[in-house]
Amino acid sequence: MVEIRPGRNKSGMQDNLEASSTNPDRCLVSEMQREPPLVEVVIEVPRGSFIKRGSTGKVDFISPLPCPFNYGSLPDYLGLDGDLLDALVLGPRLPAGTRVRAKAWGAVRMVDHGMLDDKLICSDLPPDILQCQKVLRFFRFYAKCKGLLNVARGRLGRNACEGWRDAAQAIARARPCGNSPRLHYPADR
């Protein structure tokens, strides 16, 4: 298990991030009502990798561009698409198979061949505005590429990035699988 170390954003400040329900494309910096949930993520695609693997280890596709984030899933939760709940972990490259405990500061709502496919955004510190914008740009591009791949695979349905959402709501939409432990909120300790 790797623990992500706290750091500061480029301005030297520790920002708090809250999703905007009125404008899902915009991240608002303000005080959060509560601490974000602490989740365990298993890294499937290390930052900088061209190979996208699923939670089973099977190659899903080879990307023409490297993944700018560590990408993985929560091993104890199924998303609405029937796969493990996706998560990306901001920060330095982590090897495939690494288990990371980090705070889920938000989620990006994706639609993949017509099915809702939330992606949790995780790190020890809240992402700053520039990181949020980079995440959204990546997922908008990813949705277009995935749409082309789905057409080639004969999968019909809409593909889109619908913007930034609340992490707790994305987790609440997921189904616990197996002997899933209760998610930890730092205030619960």
Describe this structure in words.
This protein has 189 residues and is an alpha+beta fold. The chain has a single domain, classed as Inorganic Pyrophosphatase, CATH 3.90.80. It is built from two helices and twelve strands; from the N terminus they run ββββββββββαβαβ. It has helices at residues 129-152, 167-173; strands at 2-3, 17-19, 27-29, 38-45, 51-53, 59-62, 70-78, 84-89, 99-112, 115-123, 160-165, 175-176. The strands form three sheets. The chain has a five-stranded mixed barrel. Mean pLDDT is 80; it is low at 1-22, 28-33 and 180-189.
Average pLDDT? 80
Strand order of the largest sheet: 4-7-8-10-9
Rg, Å, rounded:
16 Å
How many H/I helical runs? 2
The low-pLDDT segments are 1-22, 28-33, 180-189
Number of structural units classed as domains: 1
Oligomer: single chain
CATH superfamily: Inorganic pyrophosphatase
Shape: globular
How does the major sheet shape up? 5 strands, mixed, barrel
Cofactor: Mg(2+)
EC number: 3.6.1.1
GO cellular component, one term: cytoplasm
Pfam family, one: Pyrophosphatase
Which tags fit this structure?
single chain, 189 residues, alpha+beta, Inorganic Pyrophosphatase, five-stranded mixed beta barrel, two-stranded antiparallel sheet, 2 helices, 12 strands, 37% strand, disordered N terminus, disordered C terminus, inorganic diphosphate phosphatase activity
